[in-house]
């Protein structure tokens, strides 16, 4: 476990990464995206921040607050509906026209809307939480690879789990299987997101990819909840959930442990949630898998100024240290492992992911994703 004090100490040393860090916050107009962005602005030296969302009114308020926290920074709001991949591409073009590199891509876009399709014939919840996030990462990956002091992608997801073990132990349960056009289950879509990050890491092993599971916190939710008016009921289609069900649901249903009753988790203050996510977004505890300058681009040193002790390098989703893709819990622990006790902090998550890889799920999911990108936009990448 990484203590909050250790996280705060690390965050206070973000200035060691140099000035002019470029950060993109997708879903930065509320919740954990807003909180993390404010903490980043507070600690970074002359940062250039782009935040993307739908509410211009919220953006005006936030921009004033950011300028108050750090007058030396530059803050740009991009108003758009990220449920449409065409809008995602336009937002990326806007950023690329102004920047030559990106240090941090932090994604929290979410929605409470279910039961409808987008104008691009993608199921709305999946478009917001999966396709658009992966499209942002794919489009901006070359700019992340050009960075010289920090290269990181963080996607915040599955905040509904009240205990870290929940996301693994209830990943696939018979009573969770939908019979119609229902929203992606958080646990199932969690596995989908992690496998997609592993696919992206194959193309960019010099970038860190983190799938973060924050604790419940107050007063807001961890993703930007995007309301919209229903368009139409959607038929069952080839969504990632249907793909998951077809490829690996039936073979492993019988082997899954029964869901256990878990005690409720007290929500933490939103400011603390932002501090914890900022540590995840900037600490060298989570280095990229490889690259000639991994040490230079890993983030804030994991040596504690106060005690002289080192925070250990995290284990990746494959169970090995420093392998570039990480499942991270609210206390900074890596998926499936607790650095002090050696016991599973995220239950069977690494074992489950291993099983899915062996069933060729990662490749099949990625082929499905790029096929949808091509159908909607005409190209795999922008």
Sum this structure up briefly.
This protein has 382 residues and is an alpha/beta fold.
CATH architecture verdict = 3-Layer(aba) Sandwich
Domain module tally = 1
Overall residue-averaged pLDDT value: 79
Instruction: Please give the CATH class.
Output: Alpha Beta
* Helical amount: 25-40%
What best-fitting shape do the alpha-carbon axes yield? globular
CATH level 4 superfamily: NAD(P)-binding Rossmann-like Domain
C-alpha Rg, in Å? 19 Å
Strand content: 5-15%
Number of helices: 12
Q: Low-confidence runs (pLDDT<50, min 5 residues)?
A: 159-185, 220-241, 244-264, 336-346
Strand tally is 11
Distance between the termini: 39 Å
- Helix/strand order: HEHEHEHEEHEHHEEEHEHHEHH
Protein name: 3-keto-steroid reductase
InterPro entries: NAD(P)-bd_dom_sf, SDR_fam, Sec_Metab_Biosynth_Oxidored
GO molecular function: oxidoreductase activity
Keywords: Oxidoreductase
Please tell me about this protein's structure.
With 382 residues, the chain is of the alpha/beta class. It has a single domain, classed as Rossmann fold (3-Layer(aba) Sandwich), CATH 3.40.50.720. Helix content is 40%, strand content 11%. The strands form three sheets. The protein has a seven-stranded parallel sheet, with helices on both faces. β1, α2 and β2 form a beta-alpha-beta unit. The chain is globular and about 45 Å long. The termini are far apart. About 21% of the residues have low confidence.
